[in-house]
TrEMBL record:
It comes from Thermobifida fusca TM51. The keyword Chaperone does not apply. Catalyzes the reduction of ribonucleotides to deoxyribonucleotides. May function to provide a pool of deoxyribonucleotide precursors for DNA repair during oxygen limitation and/or for immediate growth after restoration of oxygen. This is Vitamin B12-dependent ribonucleotide reductase. Residues 709-812 form the TSCPD domain. One of its GO terms (biological process) is DNA biosynthetic process. Residues 684-698, 865-883 have a biased composition (Basic and acidic residues).
Amino acid sequence: MKIQRVFTTPGVHPYDTVEWERRDVVMTNWRDGSVNFRQDGVEFPKSWSMNATQIVASKYFRGALGTPQREWSLKQLIDRVVDTYTAAGREHGYFASDEDAEIFDHELKYALVHQMFSFNSPVWFNVGTSSKAQVSACFILSVDDTMESILDWYKEEGLIFKGGSGAGVNLSRIRSSKELLSSGGTASGPVSFMRGADASAGTIKSGGATRRAAKMVVLDVDHPDIEEFIECKAREERKIRVLRDAGFDVDLGGADIISVQYQNANNSVRVSDKFMRAVENDEDFDLIARTTGEVISKVRARDLFRKMAQAAWECADPGIQYDDTINDWHTTPESGRITASNPCSEYVHLDNSSCNLASINLMKFLDEDGSFRVEEFERLTELVITAMDISICFADFPTEKIAETTRAYRQLGIGYTNLGALLMATGHAYDSDGGRSVAAAITSLMTAAAYRRSAELAGVVGAYEGYAKNAEAHKRVMRKHAAANDALRPVGQLEKPIHDAATRAWKECLELGERHGWRNAQASLLAPTGTISFMLDCDTTGIEPDFSLVKIKKLVGGGSMKIVNQGIPRALRTLGYNEDQIQAIVDYVAEHGHVVDAPELRPEHYEVFDCATGKRYIRPMGHVEMMAAVQPFLSGAISKTVNLPEEATVEDFERLYFEGWKKGLKALAVYRDNCKVGQPLSTTKKEEEKKEESRPVELRSPVRRRLPKRRPSQTISFTVGGAEGYITAGSYPDDGLGEVFLKLGKQGSTLAGIMDAFSIAISIALQYGVPLQTYVEKFTNMRFEPAGMTDDPDIRMAQSVVDYIFRRLALDYLPYEERAALGVFTAEERAAQAAGEDPAQVAAQVVTYAQSAPVTETLTAPPEPEPKPRSTVESTESRKEFSADAPLCVSCGTKMRPSGSCYVCEGCGSTSGCS
């Protein structure tokens, strides 16, 4: 192939186009402040943030720390990878000349050093090292109805996890627990075998050096064990609640989480059009025996669909995959059906296959005048697809079956990241026709350019091996993509030239494909891009909107500061605001975290700044509609979780799953804030409580027990997320807490007054006999800014000032047994737990008191009715603020954030499974 220069200049090395500097990287353990990673003098471009520097140095540099073999410069890392790609391209005949090979090398290095795109993590882990060159992040396995195949599944998953990647599998071939074995006994069923695989994943996750294991388990909706599969994780989540309430450490990475099953996988139900029509028409649905193909039983489709929604409402699993839609867009149906996906549901193709990913940073193509550099975006897409295809020539694979399938079909997964930032910067609301039109046009152009280059590659080095028998099907899918592009109607001026370029690219793609075929069975998808988005200094990940309007920026000299996302002032300029207005709005956002009532900001522009969470969060159906807008232009699917507020209902989940099918999605995952904490009561228990509530309730009218004029007290200073404050707690001389006064440093008169009123209300209630334990239950885990690291060795992280205050009061004034039930421990107690000792022995050395004032007099009061939750799927008015629930990072303690179906840490780049 002839490779043209787009970004580079002859005679100028790409590394000479940036200014370099040396930095020290120090990363500490949030639990005890110890240093868990340090490398001094690393070399990075001056334009790269400290956050990106830390992620790359700690995760991707190879070689033992402290040895000459350790990589210390970004140049070394990029050279290690790109030199391998260029050499393989030369060896396998990709380049017309040595000059073309050099241009390819320079263009790729330029794009990487300027943060224009990134390969997936396994490339950075493995390529150019002594390790096996496992370049794929996504794998799909297969399991048959034999014990040998099931044990092979365990082994193959382990090898994939060891290489830093994830795998998915469909277990529907395994006979159900309602069928017989050949020996005459009853089969165990697929859900029982999931336990062994889950334990294996948890073990390898704990010992792996690169990342946490990620896996997907899929079961067809007509499998006789489908109900057990749907409910298995919800049952375990109830167990987690019980264990947590009993004081066990069941957080992400906690010592006791290993006693809970099914926690290392995402579960998805594979539904057919037949099933969804049965739901729509309220019909019965057949469950089919795996061994004989006979109908074992019938279920009401709506009841089964309801159970899926109920379980997802409880614990976020199972997700849903739309089987007929997936296979209608299948380029190689003659080689087998698509039955499963990778862990985050974006890669869907043949069993025993893999896909390597790369993601383009969209903000790098936005000009200062607000236009999109269309041609540069096309050329980069072609360059990256070429590199990705070359990687299959030298890549290693965990099994021979996967190697054969991948080399025969050469599946690729180019995608993009920073879409949310691009839309905001150009003045588009994420949940708007304009925003969806821009996203659709960009996606169409990306896939058209990728497949056009794939057809050009086929003309040079040949079509994929499986193309001949799938040629008609592949061409049919290409025509479907082109037809979807023809049906796209641009809304604004930004996307019109993008759509025009996509139309030309699809026309050329079809013409070239007719002559040469295509080099790749799949070309595009949208991955979660967790770690690599932070490597690229993106404000948003994958297809996601902005998560919040402010973020923490790490400083080169150490420390950090809270900054407003840079897309906000750019968006305000696009919307016509002057610099004074912009500064006032930015200052307001920095203080409040949202734009509601920001000075000078017109209410009709609020929607441009809507985020995934916060004061104004994007309606759940808005996420689904964005996915539906881009899905017709992707070979694969989309890794994205639709977040809902805590008050969302089961009916909301049903509607989202149903609309996902109607709108042509391939897969959908839905998550309700805090669903993994509060679990719904069983029907029986609810009925018992209703009976109790129907009886008169005896209440005691409390009597206030005032504190003496002279009483003991203590004052504690603290910082939470950089905000300073003081707690003054007064006690009864003999038996515990009786008053609390709270002050925050640098507070305005309004906030000071509110804090004083809050203190008085708490103090009077304590004196009237409200147990401190009640306040601790209600106020711990409350989330709002400021939040983050504290200077208290017993409470290293706090989700808000109120969360910190009541944890501190619990430690100082509640007995150990009550604190343990609430999950509040001192540092010494946690250390004792970790060492296998009894933390109660540590607690016994400290005298604490619980306040409990006497109460007298009885009155009769009627029970209050429980309010019914309202639907939130379409609600846009009076939206209540919520922040998506996420675990703390096991590496650095920062609260993680959702990334597709998983979580990613902004502090160190660690993920719970995503590339």
